[in-house]
Amino acid sequence: MIGSRRFAVLFTAPLTVALLALLIYPLVSTVVLAFRTPEGVVGIANFAAVFTQGGFGQVLGNTVVFTLGSTALSLVLGFSMAYAMDFIEVGRRWLVSVFMLPLAIMPVVSGLTFGMMLNPALGVVNQTLLQLGIAGPGWATDTTTALLTVILIDVWQWTPFCFVILHAGFRSLSSEQREAARVDGASAFQELFHVSLPMLRNIVIITTVFRFMDAFKAFDTIYIVTQGGPGRSSETLIIRAFMEGFRFYKPHTMAAIGILLLVVTMVSTRFVGRMLDQRSA
Amino acid sequence: MTTPIRTRVFAYLWLGLCVLVFMAPIAWMVLQSLKSPIDAIAVPPRFIFTPTLDNYVAVLTSRGFQEAFLGSLTVAVFSVGIGLVLGVPFAYALARLPVPGNEEISHFILSTKMLPAIVVIAPLVQVYRQLGILDTHVGLILAHILIVLAVIVWVMRGFFEGLPRALEEAAMVDGVSLPRTFVSVILPVAVPGLVTVAALSFILSWNDLFFALTLTSSKVKTLPLFMGTEYVGFLAVDWGKLSAAGLLAIAPIVVLVLVLQRYLVRGLAMGAVK
User: Fold this and answer.
1) B209/chain A closest Cα distance in angstroms
2) pTM of the full predicted structure?
3) Which fold has domain B64-268?
4) pLDDT tens, residue by residue, B185-222
5) Which residues of chain A are within 8 Å of residue B145 when distances are taken between CB atoms?
6) CATH fold of A55-280, please?
7) Residue of B nearest to A189 (CA)
8) Nearest residue to B150 via CA among B214, B200, B209
9) Most buried residue, A76, A99, B76, B87, by most Cβ within 10 Å?
């Protein structure tokens, strides 16, 4: 196309400028910040300080447990729902609407609602358990259950995301191949593992990586429900970084944690980017 | 596919259980929002009570809620609008025009969706302070543009790639310039894609807590921040008002999701599902 190079510049320049100002410049500054303190360049001292900080091991562990736990649970749950939808006809559209609802709910609001329901003394969950003669746990207020509580809330919020994509995936499968397998006498499970799953492979992987990244950077739910507490029992890297920067006013420490997060992000993105490109190729 | 009755019953039971789990918090919010303050914290919790709309009236007439609602609306509309103006031509260029480093740029844009905002927030606060746009609508809108760009560019790129090239070629033969072709030929057929990304971007902006928390303090109010502070105290939590405000805050998005259900799937998967 004649002159299209000129238009390529015209079409891409505005966003490029916006990204340079809003993203590239701050990113570079963060890298610089991470290797400095107000007194000057300190090399990796900020990183060393982060790693040797008391409780950092716990924060790292929480991040791993939260990210993997939330990803795995919401995937398995979302997949089971999408698969079950395959066997029904009546009410399917209604069910999709219902299952999509949590996606519409502001994480702040669902966090507050769960906080209300899981209030150890007055909440509806423990009160109902009490009626059944069971003493409910302390949920978000107990160091042993706080992390699990925020994981479950996150799973409630984001399982619909997995469900919606996987459901669309199941709908896009050719029914011929699957029926052929059934006619040949394959059990439902054989069909699932040998016919459907291989065809859904890419969609499952993409869903996993997107979910993983969202769980990895989860902030709202934890901030609203526990603020990382009690103690450090539900504190993840993001919450730690936020506290360092905005509670203790240590932007250099926040930047150092930020670099760790950045590395994980870059690795995951290259991976999912290639997968998505394969699909469109 | 013919399904054995037993399997079908099992599927319905499982889905029914899931409906209960996923609807329970919403249903409880609705119940709580209709209760008087005494009913809302009654022990044991009341399922039968005299409903009242007092909470809704109180929330809707409170200055704070009105300001936050308007603030959220302003920020979402402008960030989505500007995001579309910047992102859609960019996506088209990636899909069709000879942009050097096309693939790398696309991957980079995708990575901005996954990048935790905490990574860039410290320098952003510094720059905002120097520019004097901390705690302004302009400042928050700029940050939200960053949130929405990835979904706009990535999904629209996929959408444009799916359009037949004959569309442009016909216009080219007629001697229509590329920008005019883009506006009068391409954009009209891209409406389904535009609806998808506009809706998703709106949700992302509407729900954002992080930037509101870090870039604003008193002058700019948005719903997530208002919800997180207004009805929650260390001593008293007004559960009735909290629930009413929560439902009102999510109402626009619930409507959006229900109406645009079909459009949203593709966008959520960033184009991974057709």
Assistant:
1) 7
2) 0.91
3) MetI-like fold (1.10.3720)
4) 899 999 999 999 999 999 999 999 999 999 998 889 99
5) 18, 22
6) MetI-like fold (1.10.3720)
7) B7
8) B200
9) B87
